[in-house]
Amino acid sequence: MTHLTAKELQTQDPKKFQKEYSKWQEYALDYDWWDYMEETFKTDMAKVGIDVQRIYFSLSYSQGDYASFEGQINVAEWMEHKGYDETYPALYLAVKDYGEFARVSDRSRGGWPRVNFDGNVVGNTNPEGIFAGLEQDAWDELVYEQFSAAGLEGEMQSFVEDVCRKLYRDLRDEYEHLTSEESFIESCECNEITFETEECEA
Fold this sequence. Notes:
alpha+beta, 4-stranded antiparallel β-sheet, 53% helix
């Protein structure tokens, strides 16, 4: 019998290497390997006004695969990130004054997470900032016009879908890295694991 490292086994006894590698894959990720990715995602989303409560995902390599999350969007902060505070200044000031939030719920009917934005800001704020001198009716009309033009719920929905696509790709790539042959070899080296084999060529 000869004791080989995983790297040596890979070249000298490929069949046994694949067997050991497959066995390792069964238990290699018996922990919440995505925890740090979830925390990173939460931190990144907080920078654009999104409070992520929890992520959801499936990596079964089928059409049902997805990544999603639940949380809420601070609409004013999100508008700042998108530059909409300059494009729709009256609407931005109204949203900020009212403290408007949009809810993000986990997938609806197997699709993307759903953004729900009530838009209660329309007709419920007073002239703000550079618009402070406007009459109330003129202000309400301006906010309504910008609200209609901005299509905030649809824009937030598209944004959420985009970040979920990226989250899925990131999770998939990390999963594939953690279960790769390279990670198996590295794990064996770190734990000083060797394998017995009778097939060893000089």
